Amino acid sequence: MKVLVTGGLGYIGSHTVVELQLAGYDVVIIDNLSNSSTKVLDGITKITGTTPDFQELDLRHQDRVREFFKHHQNIDGIVHFAASKAVGESVEKPLFYYENNVNTLVYVLQELQKLKQQNFIFSSSCTVYGEADMLPVNEDSAVKPAQSPYGNTKQIGEEILKDTCKINPDLKTVALRYFNPIGAHASSNIGELPLGVPQNLVPYITQTAIGLREQLSVFGEDYPTEDGTCIRDYIHVVDVAKAHVVALERLIKKEQGSNFEVFNIGTGKGSSVLEVITSFERVSGQKLNYKIVDRRKGDVVAAFADTSKANSILRWKAEYTLDDAMSDAWKWEQRLRTK
Ligand code: NAD
Ligand code: UFG
Nearest 5 degrees, angle CA 268-CA 149-CA 204? Predict the structure, then answer.
């Protein structure tokens, strides 16, 4: 069985390629290297013993997408990660985000609909829930107006899938709403590679601990939570990767109920920023240099998942703990800096 993974050299994509290969799939990756490097292929090969087929291609070029599919008619499923993901940048460059996240999705779906097997997995995000009315959030919780062009591209992406599925019963799609993926592969052969100053908590923590950043700023200590810091559902990236394999298997085996389904991919457990720092200190044996600063604009107070739908229907459950993920993130950071 052949699977196309767009954005397969990126953070979540590379971990998913590994899990797909370990499950016996032949993988072909499309990536334009805008946020990744071909070195990731070596990391994948070290883990699985197999180098996936790699095509350097920018999905914004519709003619090239068409050309690719002309030569790859035997694809049994597509996992579509390729997108840009920086919330702040999306506010500065909205048209780039709509082009890179929405146009590319349309181009891939247009070609997918010409194939015999039309199985498709879309990377969505818990950002669609915004500040939820009730916690944990389940898949029926309201989708709130997006706070950024990036968030909007995820909502629009889901709508595009839903509308296309209505008129094409052969198209089988799943949107996975990830919560906060963190950590790295336990082998430290692949992991997160943030460009420039990290915007996300965990790479900022590990880069501070390794000495690349002076101090972590904790954004706000006056939120209505137990310790005053925001709460998120941090999930090990390998657990996220495995969710794609089971979701795809279900599509390929034609076990899907409706042809557009949505699943929360989280642990079900919320952790505060200070709890994440404590976890890091516990697994690394290091004290982290941090200070409390003002709130960051646009942060929701708390978001964590009701995962019962994925648990029961996909028979998938996150296996790793926050400590596991922080330990793997730290090992990965150390490996990166000693290479
Ligand atoms: P990433 O940036 O590490 O990976 C995305 C990959 O897509 C990169 O390798 C990049 O080079 C590639 N790419 C981007 N535009 C492309 C294009 N036009 N053509 C071909 N390749 C292109 O990001 P990630 O963290 O692995 O995220 C993967 C997906 O999951 C994205 O759609 C993202 O929006 C979504 N998501 C991520 C998170 C998170 O916290 N990491 C949370 C929710 C959803
Ligand atoms: N935080 C800090 N200091 C930092 C970075 C983050 O205190 O230097 C805090 C944030 O305020 C937040 C928590 O750590 O409370 C997590 O922040 P992240 O930036 O790691 O993650 P977010 O939940 O803000 O954002 C993530 C993805 C987005 C996605 C969003 C959906 O990065 O792409 O989840 O909620 F849109």
Answer: 55
**Ligand 2 centroid to residue 65 C-alpha, Å:** 33
State if residue 60 touches ligand 1 by the CB under 6 angstroms criterion: yes
pLDDT grade for 14, boundaries at 50, 70 and 90: very high
CA atoms within 13 A on the CB side of 77: 27
Our answer on whether the CB atom of 9 is closer than 6 Å to any ligand 2 atom is: no
% of residues, the chain, pLDDT over 70: 100
In the chain, the amino acid numbered 107 is: Y
Using a 6 Å cutoff on CB, does residue 109 contact ligand 2?
no
- Ligand 1 atom nearest the C-alpha of 60 is 18
Q: For residue 310, report the distance from its CA to the centre of ligand 2, in Å.
A: 23
Mean pLDDT for the stretch of residues 240-260: 96
Q: How far is the CA of 296 from the centre of ligand 2 (A)?
A: 9
What does the pLDDT look like over 177-209, one tens digit per residue? 999 999 999 999 999 999 899 999 999 999 999
Owner of token pair 């004290």: 287
Name the residue with the closest Cα to ligand 2, atom 19.
200
Cα 34 to Cα 83: distance, rounded to the nearest angstrom? 10
Q: Is 23 exposed, middle or buried (0-12, 13-18, 19+ CB in 10 A)?
A: middle
Alpha helices by DSSP H, 10-121: 11-22, 39-48, 62-70, 87-92, 94-97, 104-112
Residues 6+ apart with CB under 8 A from 124: 154, 157, 158, 175, 176, 177, 178, 262
User: Does pTM top 0.90 for this prediction?
Assistant: yes
